[in-house]
Fold:
Amino acid sequence: MKLELGNIFIHDIQFDRLSRVEKGIIYINEEELKAHLLEDENIRSVSCDIAKPGESVRIMPVKDVIEPRVKVEGEGGVFPGILSKVDTVGSGRTNVLKGAAVVTTGKIVGFQEGIVDMSGPGADYTPFSKLNNLVVICEPIEGLKQHAHEKALRFAGLKAATYLGQLAKDLEADEVESFETLSLIEGIRQYPDLPRVAYVQMLQTQGLLHDTYVYGVDMKQSLTTMLYPTELMDGAIISGNCVSACDKNTTYHHLNNPVVRDLYAKHGKELNFVGMIITNENVYLADKERSSDWSAKLAEFLGVDGVIISQEGFGNPDTDLIMNCKKIEAKGIKTVIITDEYAGRDGASQSLADADASADAVVTGGNANMVVNLPPMEKVIGHVKVADTIAGGFDGSLRPDGSIVVELQAITGATNELGFNRLSAR
Amino acid sequence: MILITNNPKFQKDPDPRCDTEYMAGSYRDVLIVVRDMIHQGHKLLSHPLSGSVKPNETPYKSILISKSTGSLDVDSLQIIEDSISTCDKFMKNPVKYGYNNQDALLADFSEIDHGLIEVAIASASSR
Amino acid sequence: MAKFRVVHYINQFFAQVGGEEKADHRPESREGFVGPGMAFKAAFGDEAEIVGTVVCGDSYFNENLETATKEVLDMISSYKPDLVIAGPAFNAGRYGMACGTVAAAVEKELGIPAITGMYKENPGVDSFKKEIYIIETKNSAAGMRDAVKVMAPFALKLAAGEDVGASAEEGYIPNGIRVNFFEQKRGSERAVDMLLAKLAGKPFTTEFPMPDFDRVEPNPAVADISKSTIALVTSGGIVPKGNPDRIESSSASKYGKYDIEGVFDLTESTYETAHGGYDPVYANLDADRVLPVDILREYEKAGKIGKLHRYFYSTTGNGTSVANAKAYAAAIGKELVADGVDAVILTST
Structure:
């Protein structure tokens, strides 16, 4: 399967009468977009705002971040099974508005989390401070239950990203990248001497506000299965995960999965990136056994020499991570796992909720309990009072001057377990 | 199977698919009761640290254990003990939300805990 | 800007007083730098100077912990230093324990920043890494230049009250406190590199070491203890009076094997303890308190055990490295098996 990504570099977003992309600027007809999103009866009102890198702006609470993409050539459409038909994606050509993102905000629960600071010390801890963000603030109708609220926001974000993505359909790309995964047999013939590597991605699937969808299917309903890595680039996996801002994977993370990118970077040169195994993180223990048994089984079936395993979440998933690691190592396949840590504010506590000697190669996204001081920002988009209730925030978190003292936990993407960031710990 | 829980949603509305043992008490108290029952030979069926809401944030915890007992299940013991350690680690810095609608906040925590364990009950019931 | 005043603590060997035979050298104080202090002086440049050096023999220090620490601390504080450097001790166990004790005491009692340097397997590491920063060094004095290169700037940083970064950034042995920092490459790239190294059998360093799991499966219970041969092994340092094999009071480099054929009781005149890590008075008065020969002889007589094995094995556990302890155990175990011993009572303190 071969996919070309046509990157159109964006350096500004502005509201204008006509929605279009010109010379690296996205112009948005705000009313048109709002009307489109208000088609969802569960949404009472929509407002939009723009946040750019370097501005004294704080966005919170952040629900999801999505990159605008559009299918130009090839089967299917971006976000298959959700906003496009279920046809298999990952081949042909997809255009990307690079440097831009849709950020949804919304207080789904009282403790809703996710802070993105566009400047200041907080900006260093989130990749979204470097993007030109269209912030979409949706208010639900009165009395809407949490799961319906989450779904409404989820679709609003994807629809907004798709709306913007459409603007790129006929554009000429500034840069084209190409990614190809051969079939197993072709891959063996092409790269007989290279070590065979697969990527095992663990997806958050514990339930309410902790879900992930693959081609529109709730991943908790699925057995561990396989994907071509390029399918992710067309939005095969999208986020319904709302809790723990620092280590949940936003849809942006899924579209730009860094393990996929970095394995492709060495594909055909130092390794043969054979494919992806996606697995879930369940509450029921027997389901965990089955899922991890299958991860190991598929890895063995693919005949790989090594895997990278990435996690999503904390606590319960630490057990899945260790199960996957142990069982795959027991098959004689070498593993490297990517996780983050909750080592306490002083860094002295046990970082993970589970452990095993076979997990001898670990990459960490850092200690999520580290406390940071976020200075006041001139503008807050979203809900400012939320700071006191944000995960990782606490009573007195929000100072009268508008500064916030929080743990890294509260910053969207801060300790990402796909290895998206350079943050680490020793 | 038995549901050990301090979530009032289950007290009001128990799930018919399992025996509900509602208890008043803290998140940690629930973990301790489950630990004690594991020592008595029950098996752990759901992971005690379900959900990404941290132990120092939510007061509610629901855990599924087997109704039948047997010899001590070491894996269950390991998991519950690790969970208690994790809980204690987080409780060094308990989070007191400054939100002025505590009822709504507690309702949210209750809803999430309920939602997550319901998934486990459904899985357990399908066998 | 005023220069930082530094005091350097070293042992008898690095002070050129002598080798092992001078390990009982009492604490002494000398002006300026001595021995390896010269390398530190060069590395400090204008920012600090070694105003004094305190020297103490490793045996004297370890066998007189309380008094020696106080003497050394008094000598150090008389120089009114801003910073104290101990060692580096590389892989020398007793020197490592001394450096660790001195540095920790300086921090705690004098409130002055203190650091040292050690090889990662030095027993001083596990004992002190949580109290003071220990820069990781090679395992012998051949690593002096590299050690100073890292220790000097780090020490200046502490003296200046600057923030300390993660262990990987600063070069100190991970002390269990996780510190965030930004790497050059993102996590996924580091993961790919790590996997390639692991697949090629090349060395790699995990970013998060799993907690230590040395789990040993217990053997099944002794079938019939009244018919078994029981051996006594101790890390409590019980030895024949006079310590004929010169087992060290800490960081033991050997173990002893002693014949107790015909011995029914350990007495003050026949046995003693070599262990320097506990108050020896009661063990010296009656070594049975640590090695219960008398009780086992009674059991033998009463038929409660088959018999007490003819030999007992002894070493000091104080500051002995895990690697050495494992090696002694393997050797001792081999002999016990060959001699038909059924079970061992292992005593420690």
